């Protein structure tokens, strides 16, 4: 029985089919890894911004407005490209100062409706002068 010519080809062309499946999958994996790295960097920028704002707000003679101003300076220097629509809230009471940074990380994966939220909250005691008592 003679074999048909198209049956003799074996697995010829299988490599192209494998590439068609493997390359898009590999690209998606790479994009997810890069997106995670961008999100992690955005969290680090938000943390640095919050810590700088806290340092300005908690010093003796500092204020919530000073913390807000410092946060704006830090974001302008290091975070304007990676944090999307950041919102900063600085509060100062007699005993503590708190800074909250809410934003989204820049998107690498182009899926509509997908966001990568970044939220950082730092709190610290307010510095104040306590006079030394006579017995100490």
Q: What share of the residues does DSSP label as strand, in percent?
A: 15-25%
Record field, number of beta strands:
3
Number of domains: 1
Taking Cα atoms only, what radius of gyration do you get, to the nearest Å?
27 Å
Gross morphology is rod-shaped
How far do the termini sit from each other?
Answer: 110 Å
> Count of helices?
2
What order do the helices and strands follow?
A: HHEEE
The secondary-structure class comes to alpha+beta
Summarize the structure.
This protein is 45% helix and 21% strand.
Describe this structure in words.
Strands 1-2-3 form a 3-stranded antiparallel β-sheet, with helices on one face. It is built from 2 helices and 3 strands. Helix 1 runs antiparallel to helix 2. It starts with 13 loop residues before the first helix and ends in an 11-residue tail after the last strand. The chain has 136 residues and is of the alpha+beta class. Strand 1 and strand 2 form a beta hairpin. The protein has one domain. The longest helix is centred in the N-terminal third of the chain and has 45 residues.
């Amino acid at each position: 029985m003679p074999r048909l010519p198209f049956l003799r080809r074996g697995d010829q062309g299988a490599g192209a089919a494998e590439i068609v499946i493997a390359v898009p999958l590999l690209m998606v994996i790479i994009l997810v890894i890069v997106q995670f790295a961008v999100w992690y960097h955005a969290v680090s920028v938000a943390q640095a911004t919050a810590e700088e704002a806290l340092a300005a707000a908690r010093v003796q003679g500092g204020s919530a407005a000073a913390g807000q101003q410092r946060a704006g300076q830090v974001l302008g220097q290091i975070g304007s490209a990676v944090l999307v629509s950041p919102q900063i809230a600085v509060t100062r009471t007699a005993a503590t100062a708190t800074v909250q940074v809410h934003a989204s990380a820049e998107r690498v994966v182009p899926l509509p409706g997908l966001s990568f939220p970044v939220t950082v909250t730092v709190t610290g005691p307010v510095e104040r002068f306590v006079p030394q008592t006579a017995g100490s």
